[in-house]
Amino acid sequence: MNLPNTISPPTILTISALTDLIKDTLEDNFAQVWVRGEISNLSVPASGHWYFTLKDSRSQLRCAMFRTHNRRIPFRPKNGQQVICQGRVSLYAQRGDVQFIGDSMEVEGVGGLQLAYEQLKQSLELEGLFEQQHKQTLPSHPRTIGVITSATGAAIHDILNVLTRRFAGTHIILRPVMVQGEQAASEVANAIDEFNSHQQAEVLIVGRGGGSIEDLQAFNTEIVARAIYASQIPLISAVGHETDYTIADFVADQRAPTPSAAAELVVKNRLELEQHLDQLSLRLQSSMLNRLQQIKDKQHNLSERLRSPAQLLKIKQQRFSALRQQLLVAFERHYTQRRQQLLHLSAQLDLLSPLHTLERGFATISLTSQPKKMVRTTHQLRQGDSINLRLHDGRAVATITQVTISEEQTVKQP
Amino acid sequence: MAKTIPFEESLTNLEECVKRLEQDDLPIDEAFKLFETGVKNAQRCQKSLQNIETKVERLTHDQHNNLITQPLDLTD
Prior knowledge:
Chain A has helices at residues 15-29, 67-70, 112-127, 154-166, 184-198, 222-230, 247-251, 259-306, 308-352, 354-359, and strands at residues 33-43, 50-55, 60-65, 82-92, 97-107, 144-149, 171-176, 203-208, 235-239, 254-256, 364-367, 386-391, 394-399. Chain A is an alpha/beta fold.
């Protein structure tokens, strides 16, 4: 140190000289320090430099972190954050402020990448990039599948294994990219854009095998998240293993835990589709058969009904014979009644019959010359007339030998 | 993307045919027509599923910086 002589005569310094001295003193003594404190009064102007105050319960210290250094900090500092900064102490000469110039910063207890992840996740979520309404449905029948991963990693082999093992007929286009390192994020984002310009792949699988958060960094970047969000082609993210969720996973239309699982998803859709197609064909057939059966039934039904005139005739015939029967019965009854009546009458008639009288010993007489004419009086008879006698059981012919007319008997002319 | 996919169209047609055919009270002529159309579409779907040739390519650029695909061989 080169302190000025304070023994008389006193040297009078200019402000600039003194501040330069102080600055030198500070910079020489505090060239590399670590300090812990809480961020407040954070300001990030257009220059990209960060200005903030670090404080604890008793004191505070102005801090600056210039663009060249803060560029390497993966997260964005926030007021109230407990951080550990590494840097040097200097003097902001224009204002005479003691200032801490940070070279790096870490959040207490949390790794910087982890924090960056949380922050990006939060801000993209707020912006709506993860919202379900933006998710596209995977095509049911992807014939061309775009794959974005390393050409040398296990991921592409896993994907090809599943896709080519399970079914024939897949067109796979690989866009080889670096999946870790500085260039990874922009390569992945580019590849997504390229597939969208190329317009051939119907679904994209973007992924890599699992790894540490550092390995997966490319899939936790905003540039990749935005490329996925902008993709018109439905996209499946397939990064890492089951438990690792990357930002890409949240933005993707569908997340698969591993690259193989992503391929399985595509296959599953395809198998489901084939099944669906089979089902449709079966339904088509069976409903047509149903229709035909219906028609057949209807026709059968109709021809049944068509036979009904014959049945109608039969019914009329039956009715006719029933009536005929009735008529016969009625007639018979009537006939019997009449017959009995007739018998009765003829019996009565019998009583009055001349034959009946004949039976009692009378006879009728007619002239043989006039056999039809009954002889009722002796005036009709002359001696010598031949007469026919009719008795109840036969006839006889006789000759009149004498005619005697009773005096009292009035002569009646026949 | 936005490519017209005849397959999807055939599938939609097929689905439509089945749906309509499964409704009753369809004149038999119409039913036959639907059935025919359905069968045609089903065949088209099957064909388009079977006709995809398995190939693995890589997406790259030609000398004019156009996107092209080239056969890819990973057997190393």
